[in-house]
Design brief:
Elements: H1 24-38, H2 43-63, H3 82-97, H4 104-112, H5 118-137, H6 197-209, H7 219-227, H8 232-246, H9 251-279, H10 284-289, H11 319-335, E1 342-346, E2 351-355, H12 358-371, H13 377-395
Antiparallel strand pairs: 1-2
Helix pairs in contact: 1-2, 1-3, 1-8, 1-9, 2-3, 2-5, 2-9, 3-4, 3-5, 7-12, 9-11, 9-13, 11-12, 11-13, 12-13
Length: 399
Amino acid sequence: MLATFALSAVGLSPTATAKAPSAAPVLDWSRVATQAIVTGRPPASSEMLMGIVHIAIADTVAGLGHGRPYVAAVRPDRHASAAAAVATATYDVLKARVPAVSLETTYADYLAGVPDGKAKTRGIALGRAVADAVLAWRAGDGLDNQVPYVQRKPGPGVWEPTAATPPVDLVLTKVRPLTLRSRSQFRPDGPDALTSKRYARDVAEVASIGRKDSTTRSAWGTETAMFWSEQAAQQWSRALLRLASDRRLSLPEAARMLALVHVSSGDALTACWEAKFYYRFWRPVHAIQRADTDGNPRTTADPTWQPLLGANHPDYPSGHACFTASATRALQAYFHTDKVSLTVESQVTGTTRTYSRLSAVRADVTEARILSGLHFRHAMEDGDALGTDVANWVSHRLR
């Protein structure tokens, strides 16, 4: 697959000063990484790659004399070009980990905008050294493996694929995390018992408002469900880059914020997928259609029921909840407050939403995935808790 990407001119935004070097190289190459990674790839595995790339970016900035590295403890060079260094580190990592996407022209055009000289040469050398160290760190991490799917014996509560294609991102059940001790480190307690009152309550809720042709879901509810149905890694990347620009973050500030969020989300989704395929709990579509098999007298089967949206991986815990909680908790840790104005756009609905608090984003996503017919509320709540736990863990390690 060949692709070309548009970049801003080197050093144009935001304005650089002696104490606050321009974040432009970080924002430019985070954008390139997003475009290269998300094409044809699901959100969860996308975020693992985004985490790897942003560790490389952050360690390159550290190598320029701004803070300490996370992985690549290379010899620092304060006189190297930041633009050449960040571009080279990102390009080299992407070339190795996303080889199907051609970035040669993008990289060459970007370097052409960097003045020739010792700073440029030293920047290239620094970026290459960081990339080599990061790639060595992630060698054999399992992300490129083929993982066969074996269906458990079907029955009440057991997830079965909802599409003819393989389950989405099954590979994450075998991937080495970025910072966690193990994929199961924060595994949640599991779905509600099929015979419980809470399970019946969740079934009734999603059966009503998550149905494809629901008469109880409002127009705003449908728009909310569709708003959050875009490829999440792509949607979140745009929001984060806009946030960094709006806040006028410097080069080291932008690198650290983006690394904190993407590493938190990458590990949260790895932990989330481990839990999904550990429990393999059925989606609302089968739970409602086959409610006469769950042993719960409070539920009623509806063989014709279909969700507004579909997804081919287990219900519990919710991937969107894990993602949203990890991203917002990482931002909260970075800014030391929940009161962060975040603007999110959706290419699905063509609309924009601005949230005055990060907790409001989490609340919106929780309702969106129930309104879409994809998840039970319990899956959203426990996914939120898992994502929060992982982000807390990461934020104490990426300081």
